[in-house]
């Protein structure tokens, strides 16, 4: 089924540029960014949210916090590492770069998000909303393509040998901002669950048996959007790598007999060289490329393919079927 997409534009004072141009241009001017903890909130009026119910306030606060975390990560990465957007074709972004103010728009956006969040907190207190529920709201659960007890069955091939594994991820818990899966790998239950946020980024604090990623996926993925994050190789002894991606297709698609709202992302970046015979990480890096497909409503992974000279970052994970739990 063909994908459908609609480009989106973002307007800043004095310029009109697509979001992926904005992200790349900001990465190029990283030396001018301030750290996120130095950004002061831009005041917002709590009365703006006076007519909102508690559930809507909770949901919007979740969304604002997630967006603020993404912006803060980008601001701090540039301030601390002065990263350059590799592989994006720098000359393409010069018009956008020249239109940017040197103090950076990310800091302004973070201040605006902070102000909105604080105003919604005041509005929730005035309405006596109480603590934020830990469980996922029923309305959001109903919109997900999976439910508690469903088993997602993947075929996984890893390493340069393309060793075949049977991977089962069973939905165990639906939290307000997370989905938790219990994992079976080659028929063996794993002690460490897979926890991911609702855009698809794993949030487990410790390494598990599966390759994962951090801060790569964003909410509301749109065609042309440029992404940046980390790949986390499986196992305690393995390495991390920086990766970038671009959304190349979006739209409805049937995968494993289930309907999903899919975003397809091309991945590229640099990963460490393969380990030496002694188990040490060799100096230098090698290229990585691949593709990822995720459901935009839940972050459920549909396909992940990675190619690299480093076997830690060679992977093919495909959703084969969804086994529906008894209702």
What descriptors fit this protein?
327 residues, alpha+beta, YmcC-like fold, 2 domains, 22% helix, disordered N terminus
Query: How would you sum up the major sheet?
Result: 12 strands, antiparallel
CATH-level-2 architecture of the largest domain: Beta Barrel
CATH class of the largest domain reads Mainly Beta
Q: Name the structural class.
A: alpha+beta
Query: Helical percent range?
Result: 10-25%
Task: Evaluate the radius of gyration.
Answer: 21 Å
Number of helices: 5
Coarse morphology: globular
Counting structural domains, the number is 2
- Strand coverage percent: 25-35%
Q: Which ranges are low-confidence, i.e. pLDDT below 50, for 5 or more consecutive residues?
A: 1-33, 80-103
N- to C-terminal separation? 30 Å
CATH topology of the largest domain: YmcC-like fold
Number of strands: 14
Strand and helix order: EEHHHHHEEEEEEEEEEEE
Quote the average pLDDT: 77
Give a description of the structure.
- Helix content is 22%, strand content 33%.
- It is an alpha+beta fold.
- It has 2 domains: 10-126, no CATH class; 138-323, Beta Barrel (YmcC-like fold).
- The strands form 2 sheets. Strands 3, 4, 5, 6, 7, 8, 9, 10, 11, 12, 13 and 14 form a 12-stranded antiparallel β-sheet that branches. Strands 1-2 form a two-stranded antiparallel sheet.
- Helix 2 (54-81) packs antiparallel against helix 4 (105-126).
